Structure formats: structure tokens, C-alpha cells
Amino acid sequence: MSFTNAPVTRLLVLGIVSGSIAASLLDIKHYFYIIVDTHIWRYRQFWRLLAYQLCYTNSTEVLFAAMSLYNLRIVERMWGPRKYASFILVSFLLTALIPPVIMIVLRPLTAGIFNYMPAGPTPIVFAVLAQYHAVVPHMYKYRIATSPAPPTNTPFSGITLSDKSYKYAIALHLALLQWPGSVVGAVVGWAVGQSWREGLVPLRIVRWRLPSWMVGAKPMRRSAEFESMRRRLEGEGAATTQSVASGVEAGADGQAERRRTMGQQIVDQFREAL
């Protein structure tokens, strides 16, 4: 019941969990992370760019990623499964290329520190988190004091949080688990989400949608939509006309009844006089 109206989120969570379990059981975890100097420069394994976001390699990341996607399912409910799935696919393709390229550029500048790109869809999680931050308002705020209760005339000293703060905290913990590579992926994912929203991504890509059958929706042709709308309007118009006609007929019958009643009274009075 928690995934009601969120089939894409349910599929993502199940895919992350089952994919990570399968990678552990089959002992193929080493195919899903990227070591820049070995996999990219030496062996030219560019297929890893499309593979590194398919699953995580440890249970902690699986837990926090699944919790984050579950908390962000409201974005799919607001957008609809088709738009949400299209956004996920576009984000996957963009984040499959940009973070490894940044790691390739930063590696020689940082003495090899930025050499490891961890496995997992952390960039996608942060792309969705950027949409959540923009479209979902907070319900309430609360404060946590960082010092003992001050006198009434002293300004409050503490941290102000909202009901959304713990969701950001879970995602932030996910981003810090395998830094610096996970941090790069998280920053790029957030930037992709913001670029999508601010119109920096080409409009054709933003408006592109997956076929309806891929998200379980039955496609309807535009002519069929117009025909259905026309029939509905005709039915409403016919019902309105019928109700108006019935009201006019009822009014005429009432007037005729009143006329017959007055005539009958006059005839009765003449009969009594005679």
C-alpha cells in the first residue's frame, strides 16, 4: 500500500535490492565500479559507464538508497509514472557520462585521489532529490537548541529543521559512504535535476516521454480523446436540454391545471345560482 500510485519507484527499489543481491551471489561485483586508470585508460572498458549505476556493492548503500527512493515517491505521484520514468532514464544517461568524465579530469590534478567511481545509482537519487526539494513544500519546522535555555531577552541559538530534513540527511549519508567518488556523483545528480527544472536541458529532451505501454498505461489516440470528449459534451447537452424541456412542460401543465381549476369554480358558481 505504501507504493500506491508509484509503480516506477517500486520497480526501482526492487531492482536495486535484487540487483545487489544477485551481484553478491554471482560474485560479479567487480564489474560495476570504475577505476579510472585501469578500466578506462588501460583497458578501454567504456561499457562500465552504462553498468556502474545498475547496482550497489554493499548492503549499507542499498539500505540508504532504497530508503531515499521510498521517501521521494511523492515526486512520481505528482508527475505521474510516465513523466517520472522518462526523467529517470534521461538522468541515467546524463549521469552515466558526466561523473566519470569529471573523475578523469580531476585524477591527474589530485594525485590520483579521484580515481574510483563507486557503483550504484546515487546520481539518480540526487537528481530526484533536487525535484523533491523544488516541488514539495515542508509541512512544519522545529528548532534544536545548541546551548542551555537562554534568558528570555537573549536571541535563540540553535538549528532550525523541517519535516524534510531527515530525508536530506539519509541522502547525504549515502553520498558520503564512498567519497570522493560518491560525492561527485551526488553533486552531478543534483545539478542534472536542477538543470532539468531550470530549462538548461534542451526542451526536446525535457518534453520527451517513454511509450505509455512501458509504464503500464494504455495509449489513447488524440482523435479518440476528442471523440470521447465530444460524446461526453453531447450527452451533457442532451441531459440539460431534456431537463429544461421537462421543466417547461411541467410549468405549462401547472398553468393549465390552474386555469381548469378557475373555470371549474366559475361553472360551479353558476350552477348554484341557477
UniProtKB/TrEMBL annotation:
Source species of the chain: Sarocladium strictum (Black bundle disease fungus)
TM spans (from-to): 6-28, 49-72, 84-106, 113-134, 170-192
Taxonomic lineage of the native organism: Eukaryota, Fungi, Dikarya, Ascomycota, Pezizomycotina
Record carries keyword Ribonucleoprotein: no
Single Gene Ontology MF annotation: serine-type endopeptidase activity
An annotated GO BP: retrograde vesicle-mediated transport, Golgi to endoplasmic reticulum
Subcellular location: Membrane
Predominant place of localization: membrane
InterPro entries, per the entry: Rhomboid-like_sf, TMEM115/Pdh1/Rbl19
GO CC terms in record: membrane
Stretches for region Disordered: 237-261
PANTHER family according to UniProt: RHOMBOID-RELATED PROTEIN, UBIQUITIN-ASSOCIATED DOMAIN-CONTAINING PROTEIN 2
Protein name (Swiss-Prot/TrEMBL): Peptidase S54 rhomboid domain-containing protein
